[in-house]
Every structure is written in structure tokens, then in C-alpha cells.
Amino acid sequence: MNILQFFWKNQAQICDLTLEHLWLVGISMLLAVSIGMPLGILLTRRPVFRRAILGGATIVQTIPSLALFGFLLPAPWLGERADRLAITALTLYALLPIVQNTYAGITGVDAGVREAARGMGMTDGELLMQVELPLAFGVILTGVRVATVITVGVATIAAAIGAGGLGEFIFRGLAMVDNRVILAGAIPAALMALLADFFLSRLERRFRYV
Q1: CB atoms within 10 A of CB 89
Q2: Half-sphere exposure of 134 (CA within 13 A, CB side)
Q3: CB burial class (10 A; 0-12, 13-18, 19+) of residue 12?
Q4: Residue 78 confidence class, pLDDT cut points 50, 70, 90
Q5: What is the DSSP string of 97-117?
Q6: What gap in Å lies between CA 181 and CA 28, rounded to an integer?
Q7: Confidence category of residue 169, pLDDT binned at 50, 70, 90
Q8: Are 76 and 13 in contact (CB under 8 A)?
Q9: What is the mean pLDDT of residues 75-103?
């Protein structure tokens, strides 16, 4: 049985695991954006926290994914369910590019534009929401794109702790020494990462040149 026949025969399971993978990535990215953007904004207002926040996010990025899953496993609430643990780990991995690009995008807004807005009587909140964030949005999307691609890849490791996703095929194929099974997980994951990169890069270019 060749790879195409294998894909056709197992299409239902491939679709199910692809949806599981998308769910893990989607929830993780939603949490990462919800946490990372406010942290990036905080750094522009309170630079004293920059070393601690960016340093912490950088340290998480240097920890191998399996090791991070292992560190989180003893946690009482997280360790009870594999999906919670996986989502937490993926969220932590996605934070650094989002925090960095939010900070870089806002601080990169032209000082003259900022002064003009203040001259119009804008408060700090109005300046942020009506000037800085719209102008920085293209840069922020770059961070979201990078984080999404990273998360799609790291999510394959989640199968090692029973969280599901396309990594199940990859680990199963490695155990069976069967390239067809490995590719059944690797190809959809790679396509998912490429599609996410393509669509987010197009969106990013649109906002950069608005």
C-alpha cells in the first residue's frame, strides 16, 4: 500500500487528528495573544519590567518541548488532563514573539505622530487604542504569525503526553518504523504551518501598508 492509498484508507482518522491539532493550536494562540499583547503594552509603559518579562519568555523558548511538558506534569490542575497541560505549554512557547513584536511595534511608532496625538488632547488610553495599536498592528501580526508556526510544530509533541493531534501518527510511525504513518502526521502538520504562514503574512502586509 503506497502513501496515497494509506491516506485514503485512513482519511477519517487523519481528519479527526487534524481537527484536534487545530483545536490545540487555536486555543493556545488565543490565550497567547490575550496574554502576550497586554504584556507587550505593559513593557511600553513600564520598561522596568522588560528584563523580567522578556527574560522569562526567552527562558521558556530555550527549554525543549518534552522537558517543558515534564516540568508541568506534576502541577495539580494541569497534570490531571493532558490537553490542559499541552495548551499551557504551547501558550508559554508562543508568548515571546508576541510580546516582543507588540513592544517593538508600539515603540516604533513615529514620535511626531505620538506628539501630534497628544497635542490634540488624547489621553494615554486613546493614544494607545486610536494611534499606537493601529500603526503597530502589522508588526504585531508578524509576531502572531511566527508564534502560530512555532505552535503548529510544537503541538505535534503533545501526543507524547496523550493530548492528541497529528503527533499521534508521527510517534506511532516511529514506533512501527513505518514512513507512511509518520507522513500521515507530518504532511498535514506541515501544510497547516504553511497555510497559517501564508494567510497571516498576507494579512500582515495589508496592515503594514494601510
Answers
A1: 29
A2: 9
A3: exposed
A4: low
A5: HHHHHHHHHHHTS-HHHHHHH
A6: 26
A7: very high
A8: no
A9: 87
